[in-house]
Automatic annotation (TrEMBL):
PANTHER family: TRANSCRIPTIONAL REGULATORY PROTEIN NARL-RELATED (PTHR43214:SF24), TWO-COMPONENT RESPONSE REGULATOR (PTHR43214). The lineage of its organism: Bacteria, Bacillati, Actinomycetota, Actinomycetes, Pseudonocardiales. This is DNA-binding NarL/FixJ family response regulator. GO terms for biological process: phosphorelay signal transduction system; regulation of DNA-templated transcription. Residues 150-215 form the HTH luxR-type domain. One of its GO terms (molecular function) is DNA binding.
Length: 222
Protein backbone atom coordinates (compact mmCIF):
# COMPACT_ATOMS: atom_id res chain seq x y z
CA UNK A 1 0.00 0.00 0.00
CA UNK A 2 1.36 3.42 -1.01
CA UNK A 3 0.65 5.95 1.75
CA UNK A 4 0.34 9.52 0.48
CA UNK A 5 0.36 12.90 2.20
CA UNK A 6 -1.42 15.73 0.34
CA UNK A 7 -0.60 19.37 1.09
CA UNK A 8 -2.33 22.29 -0.61
CA UNK A 9 -3.85 25.54 0.63
CA UNK A 10 -6.92 25.20 -1.64
CA UNK A 11 -9.75 23.05 -0.28
CA UNK A 12 -10.98 21.98 -3.72
CA UNK A 13 -7.51 20.81 -4.72
CA UNK A 14 -7.07 18.84 -1.49
CA UNK A 15 -10.49 17.26 -1.91
CA UNK A 16 -9.93 16.47 -5.59
CA UNK A 17 -6.53 14.86 -5.06
CA UNK A 18 -7.81 12.94 -2.05
CA UNK A 19 -10.73 11.57 -4.07
CA UNK A 20 -8.53 10.74 -7.07
CA UNK A 21 -5.76 8.98 -5.18
CA UNK A 22 -7.99 7.41 -2.54
CA UNK A 23 -9.99 5.66 -5.24
CA UNK A 24 -6.91 4.00 -6.72
CA UNK A 25 -6.10 0.41 -5.70
CA UNK A 26 -2.93 0.20 -3.66
CA UNK A 27 -2.96 3.90 -2.69
CA UNK A 28 -4.09 5.32 0.65
CA UNK A 29 -4.35 9.01 1.59
CA UNK A 30 -2.60 8.96 4.95
CA UNK A 31 -2.98 12.67 5.71
CA UNK A 32 -4.01 16.07 4.37
CA UNK A 33 -2.38 19.41 5.21
CA UNK A 34 -3.51 22.99 4.56
CA UNK A 35 -0.12 24.68 4.68
CA UNK A 36 3.60 24.01 4.65
CA UNK A 37 4.05 23.96 8.40
CA UNK A 38 1.29 21.40 8.87
CA UNK A 39 2.67 19.38 5.94
CA UNK A 40 6.08 19.12 7.56
CA UNK A 41 4.60 18.13 10.91
CA UNK A 42 2.38 15.45 9.36
CA UNK A 43 5.19 14.11 7.18
CA UNK A 44 7.38 13.62 10.24
CA UNK A 45 4.52 12.05 12.18
CA UNK A 46 3.07 9.80 9.47
CA UNK A 47 6.21 9.07 7.38
CA UNK A 48 4.26 8.62 4.12
CA UNK A 49 5.67 6.89 1.05
CA UNK A 50 5.05 10.04 -1.02
CA UNK A 51 4.35 13.66 -0.06
CA UNK A 52 2.39 15.58 -2.73
CA UNK A 53 3.15 19.24 -2.09
CA UNK A 54 1.96 22.49 -3.62
CA UNK A 55 4.70 25.08 -4.19
CA UNK A 56 3.01 28.18 -2.81
CA UNK A 57 1.46 27.61 0.61
CA UNK A 58 1.08 29.70 3.77
CA UNK A 59 3.64 29.22 6.50
CA UNK A 60 6.30 27.39 4.54
CA UNK A 61 6.51 26.81 0.82
CA UNK A 62 6.47 23.35 -0.68
CA UNK A 63 10.07 23.85 -1.71
CA UNK A 64 11.08 24.65 1.87
CA UNK A 65 9.27 21.55 3.11
CA UNK A 66 10.88 19.43 0.39
CA UNK A 67 14.28 20.70 1.46
CA UNK A 68 13.60 19.42 4.98
CA UNK A 69 12.23 16.03 3.89
CA UNK A 70 14.67 15.26 1.08
CA UNK A 71 17.94 16.50 2.59
CA UNK A 72 20.73 13.94 3.08
CA UNK A 73 20.39 12.50 6.56
CA UNK A 74 16.84 13.83 7.00
CA UNK A 75 14.86 11.89 9.61
CA UNK A 76 12.51 10.82 8.23
CA UNK A 77 13.43 11.13 4.57
CA UNK A 78 10.25 11.32 2.48
CA UNK A 79 10.08 11.34 -1.35
CA UNK A 80 8.33 14.47 -2.62
CA UNK A 81 6.14 15.01 -5.69
CA UNK A 82 5.47 18.69 -6.36
CA UNK A 83 2.09 19.52 -7.90
CA UNK A 84 1.64 23.15 -8.89
CA UNK A 85 -0.16 25.49 -11.25
CA UNK A 86 3.11 27.36 -11.79
CA UNK A 87 5.63 26.14 -14.37
CA UNK A 88 7.97 29.03 -13.67
CA UNK A 89 11.66 28.23 -13.91
CA UNK A 90 12.40 29.52 -10.41
CA UNK A 91 9.96 27.01 -8.91
CA UNK A 92 11.10 24.11 -11.08
CA UNK A 93 14.79 24.67 -10.37
CA UNK A 94 14.17 25.37 -6.70
CA UNK A 95 12.22 22.14 -6.35
CA UNK A 96 14.88 20.08 -8.14
CA UNK A 97 17.65 21.58 -6.07
CA UNK A 98 15.65 20.81 -2.91
CA UNK A 99 15.80 17.14 -3.94
CA UNK A 100 12.21 16.42 -5.02
CA UNK A 101 11.53 13.21 -6.91
CA UNK A 102 8.91 14.66 -9.24
CA UNK A 103 7.41 17.89 -10.58
CA UNK A 104 3.97 18.02 -12.24
CA UNK A 105 1.52 20.73 -13.21
CA UNK A 106 -1.91 20.45 -11.60
CA UNK A 107 -3.66 20.44 -14.96
CA UNK A 108 -2.04 17.09 -15.77
CA UNK A 109 -4.43 14.29 -16.65
CA UNK A 110 -5.59 12.25 -13.62
CA UNK A 111 -3.87 9.09 -14.86
CA UNK A 112 -0.61 11.04 -15.21
CA UNK A 113 -0.82 12.17 -11.58
CA UNK A 114 -1.62 8.65 -10.35
CA UNK A 115 1.24 7.21 -12.39
CA UNK A 116 3.62 9.85 -11.03
CA UNK A 117 2.70 8.96 -7.44
CA UNK A 118 3.39 5.30 -8.15
CA UNK A 119 6.69 6.14 -9.87
CA UNK A 120 7.90 8.31 -6.99
CA UNK A 121 6.91 5.64 -4.46
CA UNK A 122 8.90 3.12 -6.52
CA UNK A 123 11.98 5.36 -6.42
CA UNK A 124 11.62 6.66 -9.97
CA UNK A 125 11.74 10.40 -10.69
CA UNK A 126 9.33 12.18 -13.02
CA UNK A 127 9.03 15.65 -14.58
CA UNK A 128 6.06 17.10 -16.45
CA UNK A 129 6.61 16.31 -20.14
CA UNK A 130 5.94 19.93 -21.13
CA UNK A 131 8.89 21.08 -19.01
CA UNK A 132 11.49 18.35 -19.54
CA UNK A 133 13.40 19.68 -22.55
CA UNK A 134 13.39 23.25 -21.24
CA UNK A 135 14.66 22.16 -17.85
CA UNK A 136 17.48 20.05 -19.24
CA UNK A 137 18.63 22.76 -21.62
CA UNK A 138 18.47 25.41 -18.93
CA UNK A 139 20.52 23.31 -16.53
CA UNK A 140 23.11 22.73 -19.22
CA UNK A 141 23.35 26.49 -19.82
CA UNK A 142 23.35 27.55 -16.18
CA UNK A 143 25.56 24.75 -14.83
CA UNK A 144 24.07 25.65 -11.48
CA UNK A 145 23.98 22.29 -9.76
CA UNK A 146 27.20 20.65 -8.74
CA UNK A 147 30.86 21.69 -9.00
CA UNK A 148 31.95 18.08 -9.60
CA UNK A 149 33.18 17.75 -13.19
CA UNK A 150 32.35 14.83 -15.48
CA UNK A 151 36.00 13.81 -15.57
CA UNK A 152 36.20 13.87 -11.79
CA UNK A 153 32.99 11.82 -11.57
CA UNK A 154 34.55 9.29 -13.92
CA UNK A 155 37.34 8.91 -11.39
CA UNK A 156 34.88 8.65 -8.49
CA UNK A 157 32.22 6.35 -9.93
CA UNK A 158 32.78 2.66 -10.36
CA UNK A 159 31.89 1.14 -13.76
CA UNK A 160 28.72 -0.30 -12.22
CA UNK A 161 27.70 3.05 -10.75
CA UNK A 162 28.21 4.69 -14.13
CA UNK A 163 26.03 1.99 -15.72
CA UNK A 164 23.30 2.72 -13.21
CA UNK A 165 23.56 6.47 -13.83
CA UNK A 166 23.07 5.93 -17.57
CA UNK A 167 20.05 3.70 -16.94
CA UNK A 168 18.61 6.30 -14.56
CA UNK A 169 18.90 8.85 -17.37
CA UNK A 170 16.74 6.54 -19.49
CA UNK A 171 13.99 6.84 -16.87
CA UNK A 172 14.34 3.34 -15.43
CA UNK A 173 13.10 2.43 -11.97
CA UNK A 174 15.16 0.41 -9.49
CA UNK A 175 13.31 -2.77 -10.52
CA UNK A 176 13.97 -2.12 -14.22
CA UNK A 177 17.65 -1.41 -13.58
CA UNK A 178 17.95 -4.61 -11.54
CA UNK A 179 16.40 -6.66 -14.34
CA UNK A 180 18.62 -5.03 -16.97
CA UNK A 181 21.81 -5.64 -14.97
CA UNK A 182 20.61 -9.02 -13.65
CA UNK A 183 21.16 -8.06 -10.01
CA UNK A 184 18.99 -7.73 -6.92
CA UNK A 185 17.02 -4.51 -6.33
CA UNK A 186 18.84 -4.18 -3.00
CA UNK A 187 22.12 -4.12 -4.90
CA UNK A 188 20.89 -1.25 -7.09
CA UNK A 189 19.81 0.67 -3.99
CA UNK A 190 23.22 0.14 -2.40
CA UNK A 191 24.99 1.47 -5.49
CA UNK A 192 22.67 4.49 -5.56
CA UNK A 193 23.31 5.21 -1.89
CA UNK A 194 27.05 5.33 -2.59
CA UNK A 195 26.78 7.14 -5.94
CA UNK A 196 24.62 10.15 -5.02
CA UNK A 197 27.01 11.59 -2.41
CA UNK A 198 29.91 11.21 -4.86
CA UNK A 199 28.09 13.46 -7.33
CA UNK A 200 27.07 15.85 -4.58
CA UNK A 201 23.35 15.39 -5.29
CA UNK A 202 20.42 14.49 -3.06
CA UNK A 203 18.10 12.53 -5.33
CA UNK A 204 17.85 10.27 -8.36
CA UNK A 205 16.31 13.12 -10.34
CA UNK A 206 19.21 15.43 -9.52
CA UNK A 207 21.60 12.68 -10.62
CA UNK A 208 19.85 12.55 -13.99
CA UNK A 209 19.99 16.33 -14.33
CA UNK A 210 23.69 16.18 -13.42
CA UNK A 211 24.26 13.59 -16.15
CA UNK A 212 22.69 15.89 -18.75
CA UNK A 213 24.47 18.94 -17.38
CA UNK A 214 27.86 17.30 -17.67
CA UNK A 215 27.17 15.76 -21.09
CA UNK A 216 27.32 12.20 -19.77
CA UNK A 217 24.13 11.78 -21.81
CA UNK A 218 22.83 13.98 -24.63
CA UNK A 219 20.06 16.55 -24.16
CA UNK A 220 16.94 15.54 -26.14
CA UNK A 221 16.69 17.60 -29.31
CA UNK A 222 20.35 18.67 -29.25
Amino acid sequence: MIRVLIADDQHLVRAGLSALLGAEPGIEVAGVARDGTEALELARELVPDVACLDVRMPGRSGIDVAGELCAPGAQPQVPVLVLTTFGLDEYVFGALEAGVSGFLLKDSEPDVIVRAVRQVAAGQGTIDHTLTRRIMREFVQRRRLQPVTAQRAGDLLTPRELEILLLLAQGMSNDEIARTLVVEVSTVKSHLARMLPKLGVQSRLQAVVWAYQNHVVAVPGG
